[in-house]
Write a structure and sequence with these properties.
By secondary structure, this protein is α+β, with helices and mostly antiparallel strands. Helix content is about 20%, strand content about 30%. It is built from 5 helices and 10 strands. β6 (about 150-155) and β7 (about 160-165) form a beta hairpin. It is rod-shaped, with a radius of gyration of 29 Å.
Length: about 200
C-alpha cells in the first residue's frame, strides 16, 4: 500500500513540524509564548516547524508538556485534530418539538437525530382532551410510556390501560396505538420507542 504524501519514509525520523504548528495554532500560542512555556528557543521552534531541524527526545518531551499532549501525538505524521467534546449540550430552545394541529399534544424530541429509526425518546405533553394517535410501526417495535404528571389512557391494539403518575406501560407498537388525556388537567410523560435491530 502506498504511503500518504505527508508520511515520512520508513527510515526517516518523525516529522514533528506540521503537528507542532497545528497544536500551537489550535491553542492560539505564538512562537514566543511556546518558547517561554517549553524552555526551547524561538529559533529552534521555527526550524522545527519548517522541517529544518529534528528535535531531540528531550525537546519533544518539553514541547509535549508545554502543549499538554502526549509525546506520541507530537511524533505523529499528521496534524492533530482536536478531540470531540465529552459533553454535547442542547439548550432548551434547540430541542425540536412536534405539535398537533389542535395544539393539545406536544412531543419534544430528546433523542439524537442519527438514532431515529433505532432508539427514540420523547417528552410527551397532553392538554386535557389531547391525544397522540399513531399508525403501526415496523414489526417488532415496542414503546415504553412513563407518566410523570397527571394521568393518561393508553390503547394498543385491542388492549387498554389507564396510567397514573409514576406508572409505566410497555406495549407493542406494531399495531395502531394511541395515548389520550381524558382528565381535566394537563399530563406529561416520557415516551421511549425501541425499533427492532
Amino acid at each position: 500500500m502506498a504511503s500518504k504524501k505527508n508520511d515520512p519514509a520508513p527510515n526517516e525520523p518523525p516529522r514533528v513540524g506540521d503537528t507542532l504548528a497545528a497544536l500551537r495554532q489550535t491553542q492560539a500560542l505564538s512562537l514566543d509564548e511556546l518558547s517561554r512555556k517549553a524552555g526551547v528557543s524561538k529559533s529552534m521552534l521555527s526550524q522545527i516547524e519548517r522541517a529544518q531541524a529534528n528535535p531531540t527526545v528531550a525537546v519533544v518531551w518539553r514541547l509535549a508538556n508545554a502543549l499538554g499532549v502526549p509525546i506520541a501525538e507530537l511524533l505523529g505524521s499528521a496534524p492533530a485534530t482536536p478531540a470531540a467534546p465529552s459533553i454535547t449540550w442542547v439548550p432548551t430552545q434547540a430541542t425540536p418539538s412536534l405539535r398537533s394541529p389542535d395544539g393539545l399534544c406536544e412531543l419534544r424530541i430528546l433523542g439524537p437525530v442519527e438514532m431515529a429509526g433505532q432508539f427514540e425518546w420523547y417528552e410527551l405533553r397532553l392538554q386535557p382532551g389531547g391525544v397522540l394517535d399513531s399508525q403501526p410501526h415496523e414489526p417488532g417495535t415496542r414503546e415504553h410510556l412513563t407518566v410523570t404528571s397527571g394521568s393518561m389512557d393508553l390503547q394498543a391494539g385491542d388492549a387498554s390501560q389507564k396510567l397514573k403518575s409514576n406508572e409505566t406501560a410497555r406495549y407493542p407498537a406494531d399495531c395502531s396505538h394511541s395515548i389520550r388525556n381524558n382528565a381535566k388537567s394537563a399530563a406529561s410523560a416520557w415516551l421511549v420507542v425501541i425499533h427492532p435491530i
